[in-house]
């Protein structure tokens, strides 16, 4: 198993992994599979460029041989230059409970520190205790802010922050 970053030429891989995540875990993300799948390749080109240009955002992948078994984004907050966000965290169900989530989070924390960020934030599915517990192990704490999941308003997401 190895951790790596997405590369600029891997637009199709980026799209495929993101769509796998959205299809497998529809109540974990703020966008729907059908909406993401319908986006033109120019959208995926732009998104891939934004997470592969040095000094901007990043996408980490955990791979077993050539298969991506987990992913997450590290994102610089546009409004607060010393803050970042964790986004799109996903681990293939067949690979869960093997430490991949922790590996991904540690990669984002290291990246954030290297970027000089002082805080990371994220939105976690409040209806799913396993991800919340994982984030807490890394030092994330709930802020008390909750809101409906955009793709399923019957469920809540919780805001969490971690000081670096």
Description:
- The protein is α+β, with helices and mostly antiparallel strands.
- The chain has one domain: Gcn5-related N-acetyltransferase (GNAT) (Aminopeptidase), CATH 3.40.630.30.
- Helix content is 34%, strand content 35%.
- It has five helices and seven strands, in the order E-H-H-H-E-E-E-H-E-H-E-E.
- Strands 1-2-3-4-5-7-6 form a seven-stranded mixed sheet, with helices on both faces.
- Strand 2 and strand 3 form a beta hairpin.
- The chain is globular, with a radius of gyration of 15 Å.
- The model has no long low-confidence stretch (mean pLDDT 94).
Which structural class matches the secondary elements? Answer: alpha+beta
- Level-2 CATH architecture: 3-Layer(aba) Sandwich
CATH superfamily: Gcn5-related N-acetyltransferase (GNAT)
Biggest beta-sheet profile: 7 strands, mixed
CATH topology: Aminopeptidase
Number of domains: 1
Q: Outline, from the CA principal axes?
A: globular
| Terminal residue distance | 27 Å
Mean of pLDDT: 94
CATH top level assignment: Alpha Beta
Topology:
Elements: E1 2-5, H1 11-24, H2 33-38, H3 41-50, E2 58-64, E3 67-76, E4 83-91, H4 100-114, E5 119-125, H5 129-138, E6 141-149, E7 152-163
Parallel strand pairs: 4-5
Antiparallel strand pairs: 1-2, 2-3, 3-4, 5-7, 6-7
Helix pairs in contact: 1-3, 4-5
